[in-house]
């Protein structure tokens, strides 16, 4: 009888562990997705800012200050999002605009 209750208790604990694991995993995935969308949104805003100010004096410093992001983090996230560093992105789009 005691052995039966121990097995039942172990089964309940295992079920509870599975539920907690599922909930934590789901929460972490959703949190990561929201964070990724937030980064993509910020990079989209930076890209738009660059396009709107393409012929102004743009520097990594003034972009990072405007969007309140560390310069190195900006380079890393922008390159991850666009495939180019901010400077290369600016140069590429200035060259494209200058073509007839």
What does this structure look like?
The chain is mostly helical and 100 residues long. It has a single domain (2-98), classed as Arc Repressor Mutant, subunit A (Orthogonal Bundle), CATH 1.10.10. Helix content is 83%, strand content 0%. It is rod-shaped and about 85 Å long.
Average of per-residue pLDDT values: 80
Q: What pattern of helices and strands is seen along the backbone?
A: HHHH
Secondary structure: number of strands: 0
Percentage of helical residues?
Answer: over 70%
Helix-strand category: mainly alpha
Total separate domains? 1
CATH class assignment? Mainly Alpha
Distance between the termini: 88 Å
CATH architecture heading: Orthogonal Bundle
CATH third-tier fold name: Arc Repressor Mutant, subunit A
Provide the β-strand percentage band. under 5%
Specify the biggest β-sheet.
none
Number of helices: 4
Kindly provide the radius of gyration, computed on alpha-carbon positions and rounded to a whole number of angstroms. Answer: 25 Å
What overall form do the CA principal axes indicate?
rod-shaped
- Note poorly predicted spans: none
Quick synopsis:
The protein is mainly α and 100 residues long.
Please give the structural blueprint.
Blueprint (H helix, E strand, L loop, with lengths): L1 H51 L7 H7 L4 H12 L3 H13 L2
